[in-house]
Amino acid sequence: MKTSIDVILGLPSSANVKLVKPYAATNNMLILSCCSTSPTLSIADDSVFRVAPDGATQARTLAKLMETSGIENLVIIHRGDDYADTLADQTAENFMRFGNVEEPIRYIETSEYFSSVSLLADEVQKLVDAHGTDKVAVLMISFDESVNIVQGASSYDILDDVRWFGAETHVGVSYFAEDAIADESINSVDFTALFVSDEGNEGGATERVVQHIRDEFGTDPASYVKQAYDAAWLIGLSILASDSDDTSVLKETLPIVASTYGGVLISTEMNEHGDLLPLDLAVWQIVDSEWVEQGTYSLSTGTIIPK
Question: pTM above the 0.85 mark?
Fold first, then answer.
């Protein structure tokens, strides 16, 4: 049966993209994801384009951030999917160039995380006993189930004694602040995560999108709202530029439009795999229940520049 759908806009997670991709390829559809970052989906000449860089840069930067923070021992707790598996593995690989990484705690999304958090507390306790609290950190790679994990962590004093880092999926979210237990716990661990930097592109469309979200919902936009905005414009402009909605034509046109488009992101230029080229990453931290930008990781210098 001939489908009338030619373009799939959205599919926020890498797991979503991986699931839909075979069907899209069979039916000559184009996928433009705002948010998928798994390097396993970084494939040239396929039907998938992403307004996000693959996770390799984030993995290197997370390890660098921990190194500059004096962390020498790391425990990773992460959801069991393609995105988190890959980011955990790549971050561990980078971290092990200077430090020790325990066996990651991998969980399947469920309604309770008591056993995983208990195991996390045990691993952290062993490392703290051997190395001290300032040399140990937790990296959490998760989606909104992170609230449940942080709630559980509040029952273990040792998990409040070490620093926590997170993935780009956490930046800008309000769900920690909306839960009293999670809010108190997350504020005690200097929770820090990375996201594509707005440096040099703060006005114009960026300001309009941020202000619109604030006006409508009373909060700052979550991490990938800006990419979703640019993704919609890129598809629309590609259709206008090519005067066609034929998928084969759009696959050729989209990267060209992306290379010159000026939107919320400072650049939407794509690499040969159809992924956003790596950009500088902003360092965000939860301070008094608010996300505060603390600095920028510069790709050109390989250093973290304080705000």
Answer: yes
